[in-house]
Write a structure and sequence with these properties.
Radius of gyration: 21 Å
Strand content: 5-15%
Number of domains: 3
Distance between the termini: 51 Å
Helix content: 40-55%
Strand order of the largest sheet: 1-4
Shape: elongated
Structural class: mainly alpha
Largest sheet: 2 strands, antiparallel
Length: about 190
């Protein structure tokens, strides 16, 4: 897509194109059903922007929990090409453009509360963790990320304990992840 936009500007079929990097994040992972299949080697289905916009496959009808949308500063593709193209060959300009877009998206991306809980759970050693310890580790991770200049989504009016209780933490008898159940009985 970036190549198409660049060609349009370079061939003067359009006077300019403004790039607006957008970060869209949500609490729930959309592709949980297909993730296991992909881990087992099944090829990922190709998705299109049209499917996302029209709700193809029912993805927009899912309950995704909280959704955060953040915008970076828009910038002129024509100006970017003018500055970069004189000094570099075309393919390198495209790579630079791609990295600039990704960098701009990353600069406005926030870490969602569910990602904090999941990261802590995935980094545990041993057989489990008590609720109090899980809460303490989530708070520690959030504080470290903020101290390093990262951005963490607000918890709203919820305490860390309420945030931790919202996310799946252990499988039930049917193998489904459930909320509020701890891998360890220690609290």
């Amino acid at each position: 897509m970036l190549r198409l936009l660049c060609n349009t500007i370079l061939r003067r079929k359009a006077t300019d194109c403004w790039i607006l990097p957008v970060s869209v994040q949500y609490d729930r992972v959309i592709e949980t059903d297909t993730y296991v299949d992909e881990l087992l080697g099944k090829p990922k289905e190709k998705e299109s922007l049209w499917q996302l916009i029209t709700g193809g496959g029912g993805k927009l009808q899912l309950k995704l929990g909280r959704i955060d949308v953040h915008f970076a500063e828009p910038w002129s593709l024509k100006q970017f090409l003018t500055e970069q193209y004189a000094a570099r060959e075309y393919d390198r300009v495209l790579f630079s453009l791609g990295y600039k877009v990704l960098n701009d998206i990353n600069s406005v991306t926030v870490i969602m509360p569910g990602a904090l809980v999941g990261t802590v759970i995935l980094t545990l050693r041993g057989r489990g963790v008590g609720r109090r310890e899980l809460i303490r580790r989530v708070e520690w991770l959030r504080d470290r990320i903020i101290a390093k200049g990262g951005r963490v989504a607000e918890f709203g009016n919820r305490t860390t304990a309420e945030v931790v209780d919202r996310y799946p933490t252990a499988p039930n008898r049917d193998g489904q992840l459930t909320t509020g159940h701890w891998v360890s009985s220690k609290t």
